[in-house]
UniProtKB/TrEMBL annotation, chain A:
Annotated InterPro entries: Aromatic_CoA_ox/epox, Ferritin-like, Ferritin-like_SF, PaaA_PaaC, PaaC
Any one Gene Ontology cellular component term annotated for this protein: cytosol
Superkingdom as given in the UniProt entry: Bacteria
Coiled-coil intervals: none
Biological source species: Tardiphaga robiniae
Protein known as: Phenylacetic acid degradation protein
Automatic annotation (TrEMBL), chain B:
SUPFAM superfamilies cross-referenced by the UniProt entry: Fe-S cluster assembly (FSCA) domain-like
Protein name: Phenylacetate-CoA oxygenase subunit PaaJ
Pfam families attached to this UniProt entry: FeS_assembly_P (PF01883), Zn_ribbon_PaaD (PF23451)
InterPro entries assigned to the protein according to its UniProt record, in alphabetical order: Fe-S_Maturation_MIP18, FSCA_dom_sf, MIP18-like, PaaD-like, Zn_ribbon_PaaD
Highest taxon above the source species: Bacteria
NCBIfam families: PA_CoA_Oxy4 (TIGR02159)
């Protein structure tokens, strides 16, 4: 007997926490898919370590959402018992790993945002979010440094690594606009200074990314049409496949523990 | 009331002493008191409440540490207890005691450096080899065998070593 999906009452604050938690969980899960497959031992450990950081951040954010929602849900129920349309993560983080260059470029685009984002969120008027931000900020500083170094090494490496890194930049670029997404649900939280407006980070993000891409001898795609939908549950085909693996145990054996 | 307060403070002292002896399962030479992971022990309505804080968000040792604390308290005859995790203020390597740093180095793990460079995108760090003391060292990977450690090697004595990441 399969476990049914839960229902979630998404107040602005719950929705906010779930969106950030889903980003961290899905990207953390993607990184965990590299375990045992990375091009070298050090990278195997690095990707798994970063995945661990992200899943830890997701747990804190889900637990906070559960506390605010106060509807009998908890971190596990959010992760294992929501269907694909209930997930609120960025389309960027659900994109498949592809080759190593694609995984690194995806991480680079996300981390360049997350690092500045959590640093700014340390000033949140919400004590729990500020505390989660203070931990996440330290971790994301390692993540952006790791992925930046690799973007440079791959872009300014062999013709083959350059080609793969450039392909990844060109393909993933359309998903970066969603990093700065806000909607009506966020407006009140921003006005109350519980969360920051990500738009305020756009110039800094662009500087970081164009600077590293230039050093890496990679071309920056510039203005183009941006894909969006993840924040409202309209995902690419890839997320359903990811969730079928992530949720299979709890869906098949509801409440299983060990 | 005075009697109750005295009892509470004696109970708190016993509970703290017991909890402070719990070691980190991944670095068994360090106690959670050395690490600064043990934040507080308080008595709430007669129940012992132990507050711990994670080094990294996803640190898998936290569950094990919480279990070990409950076992240590039970051995001390304290059965009514609970362990809670606090995030704020966020743990930093500055909370590690000097004794902890010395024990870490003797164990073969370079202790965290204070201050400097973490925010720099490609910040240079100088870490002394815990084996031979040489500063001729280089980073192999910023991510090591646990979330709190990086992998380095000494170019003088040729030994690889763990470095407890600064943070």
């Amino acid at each position: 007997m399969a476990a049914a999906s839960i229902s979630v009452t998404e107040s602005s604050l719950v929705l906010y926490a779930l969106r950030r938690a889903d980003d961290a969980l899905i990207l953390g899960h993607r990184l965990s898919e590299w375990c045992g497959h990375a091009p070298m031992m050090e990278e195997d450990m690095a990707l798994a370590n970063m995945g661990l950081d992200l899943i830890g951040q997701a747990r804190e954010l889900y637990s906070y959402a559960a506390k605010v929602e106060d509807n009998g849900n908890d971190e596990d129920r959010y992760a294992y018992l929501r269907d694909v349309r209930q997930y609120r993560n960025l389309l960027l983080v659900e994109q498949p790993n592809g080759d190593f260059a694609r995984t690194i470029v995806r991480q680079f685009f996300y981390s360049a945002f997350a690092d500045a984002y959590w640093r700014a969120m340390m000033g949140s008027e919400d004590a729990t979010l500020a505390a989660i931000a203070a931990k996440s900020e330290k971790e994301s500083a390692y993540h952006i440094r790791h992925s930046s170094e690799w973007v440079i090494r791959l872009g300014d490496g062999t013709p083959e690594s350059h080609r793969r890194a450039q392909d990844a930049v060109d393909d993933l670029w359309a998903f970066t606009g969603e990093l700065f997404h806000t909607d009506d649900s966020d407006a009140g939280l921003i006005a109350d200074r519980l969360v920051i407006d990500p738009e305020s980070l756009r110039a800094g993000w662009t500087d970081t990314v164009t600077g590293i891409l230039r050093t890496a001898t990679l071309a920056c795609p510039g203005k183009s049409w941006m894909q969006k939908g993840g924040r409202s549950g309209n995902h690419s085909e890839h997320l359903g496949h990811l969730l079928s693996e992530l949720q299979s145990l709890q869906r098949s054996f509801p409440g299983a523990t060990w | 009331m005075v009697v109750a307060d005295t009892n509470d403070s004696a109970l708190r002292a016993r509970a703290w002493a017991a909890a402070a002896e719990v070691v980190d399962p991944e670095i068994p030479v360090l106690t959670i008191a050395d690490l600064g992971v043990l934040r507080d022990v308080s008595i709430v309505d007669g129940q012992v409440e132990v507050a711990i804080t994670p080094t990294y968000s996803g640190c898998p040792a936290m569950n094990m540490i919480a279990l070990e604390i409950e076992l240590a308290l039970t051995r001390e005859g304290i059965r009514n207890s609970r362990v809670k995790t606090v995030l704020s203020p966020a743990w930093t390597t500055d909370w590690m005691s000097d004794d902890g740093r010395r024990k870490l180095k003797d164990y073969g793990v370079a202790p965290p450096q204070s201050g400097g460079g973490r925010r720099a995108l490609f910040g240079e760090q100088q870490v002394a080899c815990p084996q031979c003391g040489s500063s001729e060292t280089e980073v192999l990977s910023e991510f090591g065998s646990t979330s709190c450690k990086a992998l380095w090697r000494c170019t003088a004595c040729r030994e690889p070593f763990d470095y407890f990441k600064c943070h």
